[in-house]
Amino acid sequence: MTLATKIEAYQPEVVRQSREVEQLVVGQATSDGAGVKLTRVLTQPLQYRLDPFLMLDAFGTDQPEDYIGGFPNHPHRGFETITYMIAGRMRHRDSDGNEGLLQNGGAQWMTAGRGVIHSELPEQDDGRMEGFQLWLNLPAKDKMRAPWYRDIQSEDMPEFTTPEGVTVRVLAGASHGIQGAVQREVTQPLYLDLHLEDGVEFAQTLLPDANAFVYVYRGQLEIAGKQVQSQRMAILKNDANADGVVLKAVGLTRALLIAGQPLREPIVQYGPFVMNSQEQIFQAINDFNEGRLTKQA
β-strands 116-122, 89-94: how paired? Predict the structure, then answer.
């Protein structure tokens, strides 16, 4: 999108009443893959509250031993993964024949659907690696759809700057008239990476039924009078009278704003498989063990 196109597409968003903070969440330190250290921000007990989102991991370290093992081959079925890198390089390969290099400012969007086996391995042995992985549920009717993959380089990521000076990167959905890199009809995810100067405000309208949260990964935010410190997730209260959220930076701040339409369907998870029933989970395990997970039905 050229600068002229961005200016033409830009539409200010007015929020008359901001959502408030319902709950502040401190992530859980854990490890995954081949010992990669990370913080699990959105955990399994919050899946129904933040439906359609299943998990958010934040990883960031200057120590190679914390990430060098990466995520060797592992399976998925029934949902989508969105990996967003803000530092470092990671190589993706999967059983559907896709390959891509994820690097600073880029993202990869993978729909596991009926089944995919993939790996995400660092292409560096020193320096900083930092980013996020979000899991987005698929509706029951799409859980066994064909896998899909898109590699989004930083230069292709839709981005704009508000008149107040807020830089907004739009991974999904739309903000202020700027369409994001990916759209989804059912869950309608909004995924923004916000860079704010001290004291500056950013207003974003939200759909009335959307579940929404903010994760601050640098600095601090104020939301409807509530302070949200760095490394905290703020779950935004569902309020029929609120038409969006207003964020105010306290110091130089970077944060993710994520929202989506709930599926209101059963969620049954077993590790890398997320389905709607135990029977479907047993089938996924059997399919993986017998080499059928990635086979077309």
Answer: antiparallel
